[in-house]
Amino acid sequence: MRTAALLPGTPDRAIVDTTWGTIQPIQLHPGVQTVGELELIAHLEAGLPLIDTRRSESCAAGTIPGARSLPHTEVADRQGEIDPELPAILFCNGPQCAATPHAIRLLLELGHPAQALLYYRGGVHDWVTLGLPLTQPSR
Asked: CA 10 → CA 5, 7, 14, 15, distances in Å?
């Protein structure tokens, strides 16, 4: 289990697997800002893009409301789907997941401006652990 899962019949409790991955740094790259839940919520309220970089099957199981799926393994082929003029928050499973660091590294190598990329390090792990909702991804 790589993502937090809600306990059946108890919507306010989740199971969290802490046995996988490697803890990721707070700052991935100079110019790429790391944000928390409140900044993410304000970002969505402003109508700005939120991108789930996990693999499609993980995203399909539930993602942060308002997020769209762009798996880190497809970033090089689909980079045109991220507008370099708009700040976009990218996230994955959480502090142990390398999907978003990989996606951001690729985007930077492809010339995407660092200031247009934001990193929600807490990911689905922290989102669910805080009792915030999941939904199906938008396309």
From this structure: 11, 5, 8, 11
